[in-house]
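#help-structures
NK: newbie question, is this the right format to request a structure? protein is DUF1972 domain-containing protein
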Amino acid sequence: MDDARPLSIAMIGTRGVPARYGGFETAVEEIGRRLAARGHDVVVYCRSVDGTPSPAEHLGMRCVTLPALRRRSLETLSHTALSVGHLAAHRTDAAFVFNAANAPLLPVVRALRVPVATHVDGLEWRRAKWSGTGRRYYQRAESLAVRWSDALVADAPGIARYYARKFGAPTTELAYGAPSLDGIASDRLGELGLEPGGYHLVVARFEPENHVEVAVAGYVASDAALPLVVVGSAPYADEYTARVRAAAGDDPRVRLLGGVWDAELLDQLYAHALTYVHGHSVGGTNPSLLRAIGAGTATVAFDVDFNRDVLGGAGRYFRGPADVAREVERAEADTAAVARDAAALRERARDYDWDRVADGYERLARDLVARRVPGPRRRWATTAPARSEVVEAR
């Protein structure tokens, strides 16, 4: 095989590009644009947003917009099924499937003789939004991803450890990149009545495992003088959104902005917060966390290994509301310590580089085509891991 020739590469299983929603979409956009700039033909399967399809091309990537059933339990799989059907008529050299939930469709991709790697993400079965049936489905899907993928991609050391322990399965570890937000302007903050260094920030989808309610409740219980700005919302999460609003109560210091899709404004919010409070606990290496450290913003994170892998000793950690209250008060009282933490995190962000991530995906795509990959594993573990086997909370 000619390891220099351009490849055609399909990216399947996400909401697609432009990236508006979460980590997978960010990864597809940042990796796909770089692969396209290197001459590869990158096809991204997309879902429409509010009835509006993605453009035919975005940052050099070809976009194929297909419908999906608008039900939480069926949206991802229904869209991926249509995407795989389209792939059958427009085969590519290799495919990356994002989300182990799509594993039941991997045999179809393999039947097309398209080598496929599955990006397995975090521990989806631990998300509170899933019922017992949903959790069992996701646990089973992990097994099927191991069984039917030519290769697995993990975006965090904790995910790689999990698949090694539970399945004895090797993974290609490719973390996300951290954007550099050094020297970014602050002129847009005035639109929200904010000043640089004059607020604490939460950015998260409103789901229990992201601990937005904990962050808000802890802040409300604190004596912090600076406001807490909360960016986020979520489809299918009305009950949890109501809990977040209840935690905020009528405290005038809490600013619930909802979703902010203006990338320039969002970057300025990250870059000029005194602290970023990060509650994500199950999703591997989180792009929002990387965005914060790329901005050089002091970070208070929920205490699990995924977050410690990124922040190390430069981060501050919380397990409950009292910890959040303590950390926001400490930050306001000791801005010199905040500045030291911020500088250390900015240095750690250099380890998360999208160009190197794209290098890894390009190598993996060539290895898939050349069959230099582990291949499907016909035997796999079937027992669900104990909580302590998955993410070691401190």
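mod (FA): yep, format's fine, and the tokens are attached above. The longest strand covers residues 41-46.
NK: thank you!
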